[in-house]
């Protein structure tokens, strides 16, 4: 049976897995109790109840071509709670590309000079929606007193990385060119994303650097999906391949995004941040990830390479935290600390000064 849990409790704004996996009928074989006990032993004690429920309900069936359509059919979470204004816009895409839908969160009349965020949603490159990210962006925009634009980029496998990069860049260019009408400062724009959205944000930072049209002040990458070799040509410990996002789903996501088998020597660097050889000149970065997240090794390695390239980089590795833990267990001290670190990093990167209150 599917888990009896709301989308909002499971996944952050539809990003990490497109908010779908807990509602799919599990078709994987449950691990035996010894294996489950071993995995739970590696989970932070605060997060063990949530992890135990995931394991007991088998709420992480691998994504495949057979269940992708169903996963996409689930509606986004309701936009309840905060009354932060949101506008839907349709903007021109890149030359020869279709129009792009964006959502503008927390705009303000011209005259303000606030920083701004360009957000890219997650979902393994194959799931998720920009509209599903709005509720979470309202919280961030309220905390930072800033506007944000989130992009409804085209998903794989219907569109490979070449198309979605252009969609996201169109959103970034629009934000930069229309900053004044949003009450934003075009010199203080950050890219931000979670999971595959973090991968998109990293690709967008690289694209903006290479094209030289939009200066970026910061990149905020939350457990980003950066390397197609993870779980394919590079194997991982068992505990990193059971909770939320697995190597099998990762393989399917990358294969769809690249339009070819991931992990091999011929994969184009243009679609994989971890394969880009030159990271010099990128904006300062914050990377946050859990120590038992499938993406931990690739995220730590990317942070190391950014530092080696002279890019100011903050890396936060949360002990015993799995992929999407901050959405699955948002009220834990660990998750609140992680969210506070993200906001603090954005404050610093966007020149907003010290946080209004200390981290927990």
From TrEMBL:
Residues 117-325 form the Alpha/beta hydrolase fold-3 domain. It comes from the Bacteria. Keywords: Hydrolase. InterPro entries: AB_hydrolase_3, AB_hydrolase_fold, GDXG_lipolytic_enzyme. The keyword Hydrolase applies. One of its GO terms (molecular function) is hydrolase activity. PANTHER family: AB HYDROLASE SUPERFAMILY PROTEIN C4A8.06C, ALPHA_BETA HYDROLASE FOLD-3 DOMAIN-CONTAINING PROTEIN-RELATED. This is Alpha/beta hydrolase. It comes from Novosphingobium beihaiensis.
């Amino acid at each position: 049976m599917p888990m009896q849990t709301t989308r909002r409790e499971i996944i952050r704004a539809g990003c990490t897995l497109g908010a779908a996996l807990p509602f799919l009928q599990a078709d994987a074989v449950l691990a035996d109790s010894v294996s489950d006990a071993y995995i739970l032993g590696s989970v932070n004690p605060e997060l063990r109840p949530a992890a135990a429920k995931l394991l007991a309900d088998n709420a992480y069936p691998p994504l495949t071509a057979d269940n992708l359509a169903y996963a996409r059919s689930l509606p986004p979470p309701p936009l309840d709670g905060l009354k932060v204004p949101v506008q839907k816009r349709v903007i021109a895409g890149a030359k020869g590309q279709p129009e792009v839908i964006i959502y503008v969160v927390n705009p303000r009349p011209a005259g303000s000079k606030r920083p701004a965020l360009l957000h890219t949603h997650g979902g393994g490159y194959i799931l998720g929606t920009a509209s599903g990210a709005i509720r979470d962006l309202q919280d961030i925009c309220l905390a930072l007193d800033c506007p944000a634009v989130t992009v409804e980029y085209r998903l794989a496998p219907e569109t490979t990385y070449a198309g979605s990069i252009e969609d996201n860049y169109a959103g970034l260019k629009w934000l930069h060119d229309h900053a004044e009408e949003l009450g934003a400062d075009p010199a203080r724009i950050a890219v931000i994303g979670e999971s595959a959205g973090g991968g998109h944000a990293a690709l967008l930072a690289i694209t903006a650097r290479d094209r030289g049209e939009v200066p970026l002040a910061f990149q905020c990458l939350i457990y980003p999906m950066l390397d197609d070799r993870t779980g394919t040509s590079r194997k991982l410990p068992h505990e990193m391949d059971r909770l939320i996002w697995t190597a099998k789903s990762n393989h399917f996501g990358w294969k769809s995004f690249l339009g070819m088998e991931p992990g091999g020597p011929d994969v184009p660097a243009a679609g994989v941040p971890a394969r880009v050889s030159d990271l010099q000149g990128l904006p300062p970065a914050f990377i946050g990830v859990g120590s038992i997240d499938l993406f931990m090794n690739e995220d730590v390695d990317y942070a190391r390479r950014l530092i080696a390239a002279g890019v100011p980089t903050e890396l936060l590795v949360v002990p015993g935290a799995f992929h999407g833990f901050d959405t699955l267990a948002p009220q834990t001290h660990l998750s609140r600390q992680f969210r506070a670190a993200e906001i603090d990093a954005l404050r610093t990167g966007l020149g907003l000064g010290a946080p209004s209150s200390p981290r927990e």
